[in-house]
Amino acid sequence: MRGEAERLLRQYLEQRRELGERDLVLDDMPVDEVLRLVGARESAASPPQRSPAPSADASLRQDAARTPDAAPASLPPAPAQRTAPPPDSAPLADAPLSGSVVVPQTERELFGDAISAADSIARIADLVRECRRCPLYATATNAVPGEGNPDADLMCVGEAPGANEDATGHPFVGQAGQLLTKILAAINLTRDEVFIANVLKHRPPGNRNPRPDEVEACHPYLVRQIELIRPRVIIAFGTFAAQTLLRSKLSIGKLRGAVHRAYGASVIVTYHPAALLRNPAWKRPTWEDVQAARRLLDATPQ
To answer: What b/e string do you get for 158-172 counting C-beta neighbours within 10 Å, with b at 16 or more?
Structure first.
């Protein structure tokens, strides 16, 4: 058991080093020093063997392989029996890291009466279309409440509608939406099986960053959607989604790599699909993150 945990730790640290990291927030030890200590415990005659990867969408693998930090040809599946990870250093795909952000399941003080009384996803969508809680409704063409399976195990949360979303009233369409579809296919899910939403329900003019007052105005809708759907896992795509869900000011780099808890769900933080279109080197860490979400889904009881 201990040997398997050490193997996974070593693999995780090697991946972090390949991504250019030299220090981890473990105990202020450099990555190379941690690897040396881990390696000292392992037998040189028994190098770790990688298991075949779970089935995944080939196009996402090929996209990642074309980047300088290409994704490995195979990724280890979740172990049949989960082992006790070393404290403060377990791989994201294996167990929560200590120090992860934990958010209470409800934040009723944020809710207006109508939002807290909404008893279905369809009712939330109606309220969003009628919403005047911030000025964004005046410049938007359509509200974008979110869509998908109201009983989804996985919920995807992005930042805000863009031009295509504003024109259609649907979340994650256009190039970023096509990439999200591929990301979901890579973990054997379709858009119809998940619920997709944004922090903001109306498009900010010119796709500018959301303002704090706009985030606070829309936040109760998102929380109520989570309460009604009761997903087991949420993927927060991008900085604003992660910071809003986790009520944190930390950067996405610091929020990645851990399993957080928010509103009764496990939360995985990763890069927004639109960011991957601008920076293909981020496809590899995104691949790692969504594989971790898949493992959480597989490991969590129905």
So the answer is: bbbbbebbbeebbbb
| Rounded Cα distance, 209 and 265, in Å | 26
199 with 157: CB under 8 angstroms? yes
Report pLDDT digits (tens) over 255-267: 999 999 999 999 9
Bridge partners of 262, per DSSP, are: 103, 265
Q: What is the DSSP letter of 33?
A: H
pLDDT tens profile 217-231: 999 999 999 999 999
Q: Which residue has the tokens 């998102």?
A: 222
Query: Which distant-in-sequence residues (6+ apart) come within 8 Å of 240 by Cβ?
Result: 159, 160, 199, 209, 210, 215
Please report, for residues 23, 49, 91, the alpha-carbon distance to residue 28 in angstroms, rounded to integers and kept in the order given.
7, 29, 17
